Amino acid sequence: MAELNTGGDDKGKKVRSKKQNSGVDLTAMVDLAFLLITFFMLTTSMNKPQSMNLAMPDKSEEVPQEEKIKVDENRTLTVLIGGDNKMKWFMGMPTTPLEGPTESTYGKEGIRKILLNKNKEAKAYSQDVEKGLIVIIKASENATYNNLIDILDEMAIANIGTYAIVDITPEEVEMLGEN
Amino acid sequence: MAKGKMKKKSMRVDMTAMCDVSFLLLTFFVLTSTAKLPEPLPVDTPNSTVQTKLPESNLATVTIGEGKVFFGVLGKEDRKATLEKMGERYNMTFSEEEKQAFSYLEGIGSPMNELKGFLSLPADVRTKQSAAQKGIPTDSLDNQLKDWVQCARIVAKEKNSLVLNVAIKGDAEEAYPQVKKVMDILQEQRVNKFFLVTGLRNEDF
Questions:
Q1: What is the mean pLDDT of chain A?
Q2: What is the domain partition of chain B in residue ranges?
Q3: Of A68, B68, B93, B173, which alpha carbon lies 20 to 30 A from B99's?
Q4: Is pLDDT at A65 greater than 60 in this prediction?
Q5: Beta carbons of A145 and B173 less than 8 Å apart
């Protein structure tokens, strides 16, 4: 590819040097161009940040107590998020929980198994694929933003259709053992 | 002699066309890529497996980190219009240079009374001191974040007749009450849908 002109040594000198000058060696230039293309291609697609959509219930209008949507306690799972990456969950009402409160952890072995199981059970209970588990997320004062994202991510992984972030009540803070 | 000449000719490939094409592509990518502006407040976003992308236009970002709140809008013209609206609300007039300086900023974190001072700094000093800004006040008495969001939404509605998207970019270590406060401020204005900016987590999580 790269040809070196080491100076003429034979008779055909004139003809040869003319031929070589007719083409410029573009190899290095193409190399550089492709390197830059690759760089720009990769950076443009990686630049876009990811995001997670979150829709919160409208709370501007006060709904009268009677018209509030009633949720089945057999399908309701509440997740309490505390400080130090602690978490507790229970089924049903906070005052008379059907199951729990049980301590759990984030990730594959912890809350995800429970969510998947309970979602299956809830679907079986309601005899309707559309009516799965309802998860209520309550974070305490000591929780971090990371904890909230983690639990929302679990909702996406476990395919939970209905979930809401709700303010924590003093009884539930006590349940978490934080005061 | 003849044999040797033949060999030398076949060694060389004509690169002209390849060079043309590669430079055309290069120009395309250079022009389409947007230069990344320095972040006003560097935050370490939490990771998630959700892969939806953020919208690329018509977006306001509320950045929360170190207990401070920063606010920014996408688009130079929209930024200027938002600043003018805020000026009207707080009885302040901004000069053309200040508007220009503001339109280059990805986000702002100064209370209104300190904003002029921040905008009058030289550009390089401003970039360095960006994270040292006090943050936009979010107290119920002096809720400037509410006004910023409101102004940005009015601008989006009047100029582009679109409903503004709002993204929240929080630091992973940020305490939940601070994030909750911002969400409440947004919900007061019936912004019930947010984009939470996250990083990428590996599949194995």
A1: 75
A2: 47-200
A3: B68
A4: no
A5: yes
Structure letter (DSSP) for residue B143: B
Q: How many other CB atoms are found less than 10 A from the CB of residue B26? A: 20
How many other CB atoms are found less than 10 A from the CB of residue A39?
Answer: 14
- C-alpha dist (Å) from residue B95 to B91, B102, B119: 13, 11, 10
CA dihedral B139, B140, B142, B144 (to 10 degrees): 80
The CATH number of A72-176 is 3.30.420.270
Distance, CA of B104 to CA of A115 (rounded, Å): 46
Residues 7-26 of B with CB under 8 A from A: 8, 11-16, 18-19, 22-23, 25-26
Q: Is the pLDDT of residue A62 over 70?
A: no
How far apart (Å, rounded) are the C-alpha atoms in residues A83 and B166? 27
Mean pLDDT, chain B, whole residue set:
80
CA distance A165 to A92: 16
- Contacts of residues A62-68 at CB distance under 8 Å and 24 or more positions apart, as own/partner, are none
Nearest CA in chain B to A51: B197
Residue numbers in chain B where pLDDT is lower than 70:
1-11, 34-38, 202-205
> Taking a contact as any Cβ pair under 8 Å apart, which residues of chain A between 95 and 154 contact chain B?
107-108, 139-150, 152-153
Put simply, the answer to whether A50 touches B179 (Cβ < 8 Å) is no
Q: For chain A, which residues make up each domain, given as ranges?
A: 72-176
Measured distance CA(A167)–CA(A157) in Å, rounded: 23
Angle between helix B144-160 and B176-188 (nearest 10): 50
- Could you report the per-residue pLDDT of A11-41, keeping only the tens digit for each? 444 555 555 566 678 888 888 999 998 888 8
| Amino acid, res. A93 | M
pTM value > 0.95: no
- Under 8 Å CB-to-CB from B81, ≥6 apart: which residues? B155, B159
The amino acid sitting at B123 is A
